[in-house]
Amino acid sequence: MSTTVLTSCPTKEEAVKLMKDTQQALAKYGNLRLHKFASNCAEVMSAFHASDLASNLKDLDLECDSKPLQRSLGLSWDVNTDNFLFQLSSENKPITRRGILSTINSLYDPLGFLAPVIIQGKLLLRKIVSETVDWDQPLTDETADEWKSWRDTLIAIETLRIPRTYVPYLSKTTTKELHVFSDASEKAIAAVAYLRTTDSSGEPNIGFILGKAKVAPTSGHTIPRLELSAAVLAVEITQTIVDNLDLHIDTVKFYTDSKVVLGLHQ
């Protein structure tokens, strides 16, 4: 069994202590070896034997050499810049229902960074499902052109660089607020959460935390009902954040442009 953990500490000394304490506790009480360490700080990695580091870091000069990409929770992590990035498969999939589903599923995005892009692919897939019966049936020329146009936009994703940290110096902030937005259309519903912090001087910082989008049902739902479903989705991602984020949130604020949703909550 293999488990990956990603965490942060305010200082390199705290990071080393946490890693060593956890490593010793797992060895003593569970006969488990905690290893394959990677960090954006060379001094943290230097505190461990080479055999404890990630396999592609063992033979490097940690102070001078550029570090290769790491995989963290399914995402690519550039430890040199401390950014997440996306590496897409270069494999050309057939322009069929099966090939398109495979392409969409290859976009692993658990935090919702790419939700606005992926939802467009899912909407196109729903259209394709309504037009074709067989999984390997070629698409119509019009639909194939739509698919190629969407697929070509994926190239830009590889240029994205997303900071791993929510905001700079999180441990030194004085207030932490969660701002959660929801919206809906006839095609999809979505919600996104941002962390807003302020420091002792009142300087604000804002960072993306989590986003989620879903394809709306094809019939039987009015816009007000979909707006309400989006608001429910906002509450759900908020609960996920509160349950999993080791951080005290001072205030949670929800935003919607739907008067129906606002009226129901007054």
Automatic annotation (TrEMBL):
<feature type="domain" description="RNase H type-1">
    <location>
        <begin position="174"/>
        <end position="266"/>
    </location>
</feature>
<protein>
    <recommendedName>
        <fullName>RNase H type-1 domain-containing protein</fullName>
    </recommendedName>
</protein>
<dbReference type="InterPro" id="IPR008042">
    <property type="entry name" value="Retrotrans_Pao"/>
</dbReference>
<dbReference type="GO" id="GO:0003676">
    <property type="term" value="F:nucleic acid binding"/>
</dbReference>
<dbReference type="InterPro" id="IPR002156">
    <property type="entry name" value="RNaseH_domain"/>
</dbReference>
<dbReference type="GO" id="GO:0004523">
    <property type="term" value="F:RNA-DNA hybrid ribonuclease activity"/>
</dbReference>
<dbReference type="Pfam" id="PF05380">
    <property type="entry name" value="Peptidase_A17"/>
</dbReference>
